[in-house]
Design goal:
- The structure holds two protein chains of two kinds.
- The longest helix of chain A has about 30 residues.
- In chain A, helix 7 packs across helix 9 and helix 8 runs antiparallel to helix 9.
- By secondary structure, chain A is mostly helical.
- Chain A has 13 helices and one strand, in the order ααααβααααααααα.
- Chain A has two domains: about 50 residues, no CATH class; about 200 residues, MetI-like (MetI-like fold, Orthogonal Bundle), CATH 1.10.3720.
- In chain A, about 45% of the residues are buried.
- By secondary structure, chain B is mainly alpha-helical.
- Chain B has a single domain, classed as Orthogonal Bundle (MetI-like fold), CATH 1.10.3720.10.
- Helix content of chain B is about 75%, strand content about 0%.
- The two termini of chain B are about 35 Å apart.
- The chains are: A mainly alpha, B mainly alpha.
- The interface between A and B is large, with 93 and 92 residues.
- Strand 1 of chain A pairs parallel with strand 1 of chain B.
């Protein structure tokens, strides 16, 4: 009994620690400015959507959000287009140098991706894609692509190759066999990793802020504007950055754990 | 498995490898070139920021933040993982709550911290309502660097502990229940079980969590930059400052190179530790 109560108490404390900042940023983004600045008032008497509205409408938040979605979409697209063949080869073929290739891809994950922003800026100016969403998306792809290769190869590896071989015996091509037999089975897992890739790109701020001036993604826009913007802008910005991420985590919570390599039953 | 001779399997990797050479390999080389390009002396870009002490200050702060944040996260995450692994009623719900910060950006985390620690923030509201402070306590700005430093540390611990936590929790799944039951029969204490059974089995997970977190800790940017600007200078923040505000790619690249070199050294140490562990395993 005492043990149960103690467990519950610790669980509540942990939940409190992790949830409080999230609750407070949402609360502060909904609190009228006068009430936020009133030191004697902790909880507001009324809530307002004005801050979120002005962030979206007058302070460029909506455009930046659309930019962020486009950047993430392009980099997920390229990552899967380039990454799936490699993931397929890693699981379905045996060949010399396979482990070295896998290790090389794994090692790029320890590469500090933020440093590529500076040299890419000069490259983009030369080839004429500076300050474009494509430029940011390509930079984000170098962060997302190795992740997609590794995670997809572990997902595809979970489906036995024998189904595909049976398909090929019955006359399907290698590609058709993969698309019609394995693909439907791995699709949920790949969708979860695409969502994860979306969050990686959605959250990336350093490279995006360096590569763009006019076409900023949401975090880059916030980073740039926060220095001079009023407090309510910061709270509204913190909230709209956090909400999509939390929704995605909720929908992928089953996969989230397997994305980090565990099966917790 | 299909055994493949010839070049067919390698063709599948051409897009990935070509892309990574173009967007990771080339920028790395270009970072070197930019960092060492200076009108008069090859080390000029470094000297410009080491003579004034700026780079040392940024390096020192980045090291100090990493040295506090990484071990704190490890201890906190281990405790959380052991707690969740008890699988009490409702543990999945708590697991979901703990994993929320995994999806949050450093930008959101910084702004959350700001809403709590700003002069009109919730900490000050609560302290003033309880009568524990007459006027707002300042956590940011000139003259309050020590407090700002600790706010950054707390924010980083809050934000990134869940990453360490999921890796350790994954590792805990490979601890065989029978070992623990055997230990119970021999009357081992909880502490002995943790030290002699769980931690050794968890060592690979601990090492990879440490590697990932140390690498990321040296790239800390959003939290420090948004909360303190250059009051608490950090390596990535200085790179951003020199690139986006001073328009000097060469000095910015010098900072980038320092981050890259630190990452290479950390990965290298990790590989050595990992290899020596394998040798140990082979002997045993």
């Amino acid at each position: 009994m005492i043990k149960k109560a103690l467990t519950l108490l610790i669980a509540i404390l942990i939940a409190f620690w992790f949830l409080t900042p999230i609750v407070l940023i949402v609360l502060s983004s909904l609190t009228p400015s006068a009430e936020y600045y009133d030191p004697h008032r902790i909880l507001p008497r009324s809530l307002t959507l004005n801050h979120l509205r002005s962030l979206f409408v007058t302070l460029g938040g909506w455009r930046a959000t659309l930019n962020s979605i486009q950047v993430a979409g392009i980099s997920i697209g390229i990552s899967f287009l380039f990454g799936l063949p490699a993931a397929y080869a890693l699981t379905r073929f045996v060949f010399r140098g396979k482990n070295s290739i896998r290790l090389a891809i794994l090692l790029t994950r320890s590469f500090p991706v933020l440093i590529i922003g500076i040299p890419l800026l000069t490259l983009y100016m030369r080839i004429g894609i500076s300050d474009t969403l494509l430029g940011v998306a390509l930079a984000h792809t170098s962060m997302v692509l190795p992740f997609v290769v590794l995670i997809s190869s572990s997902i595809i590896g979970g489906i036995s190759v024998e189904y595909e071989e049976a398909g090929m015996i019955f006359g399907l091509s290698r590609f058709a066999s993969f698309m019609r037999i394995t693909m439907p089975l791995v699709l949920p897992g790949l969708a979860a990793s695409a969502i994860f890739a979306f969050i990686m790109s959605w959250n990336e701020v350093f490279v995006a802020a360096i590569l763009t001036v006019g076409n900023r993604t949401l975090p880059a826009h916030i980073l740039n504007a926060a220095m001079t913007a009023p407090d309510y802008f910061k709270f509204a910005a913190g909230t709209i950055m956090a909400v999509p991420a939390m929704i995605f985590i909720f929908f992928t919570r089953k996969y989230l754990m397997s994305l980090w390599g565990i099966s917790l039953k | 498995m299909t055994y493949k001779k010839g070049i067919t399997p390698y063709l599948y990797f051409i897009p990935v490898i070509a892309f990574l050479i173009m967007f990771l390999g080339y920028p790395l080389i270009e970072t070197f070139r930019l960092a060492f390009t200076h009108p008069t002396e090859p080390l000029g870009n470094f000297l410009r920021v080491t003579r004034t002490g700026e780079m040392w200050k940024a390096l020192r702060y980045t090291l100090m933040i990493s040295a506090i944040v990484v071990p704190a996260q490890l201890v906190f995450a281990l405790a959380l993982a052991l707690f969740i692994n008890m699988r009490f009623k409702g543990y999945l719900f708590l697991l979901y709550i703990i994993s929320i910060p995994l999806a949050l950006s450093d930008v959101s985390a910084a702004l959350m911290s700001y809403s709590i620690f700003s002069p009109s923030g919730y900490v000050n509201k609560i302290l003033m309502n309880l009568g524990m402070a007459d006027s707002p306590i300042y956590f940011f700005g000139r003259g309050f660097e020590t407090r700002a430093f600790w706010v950054i540390v707390i924010t980083e611990i809050w934000r990134a502990t869940p990453l360490v936590f999921v890796i350790l929790l994954a590792g805990l799944q490979s601890v065989n229940k029978e070992y623990l039951e055997a230990a119970d029969i021999f009357g081992f204490s909880r502490w002995t079980k943790l030290r002699k059974i769980i931690l050794p089995i968890l060592k690979p997970a601990i090492l990879s969590a440490l590697l990932i977190r140390t690498l990321f800790a040296f790239q800390i940017f959003g939290v420090a930059w948004l909360l303190t600007g250059r009051d608490i200078p950090i390596l990535a923040g200085e790179a951003y400052y020199w690139q986006s505000i001073r328009y000097n790619s060469n000095v910015a690249a010098s900072y980038g190179l320092v981050i890259a070199l630190i990452s290479i050294i950390i990965s290298w140490i990790y590989l050595i530790v990992l290899r020596s562990r394998e040798v140990e395993g082979a002997r045993a």
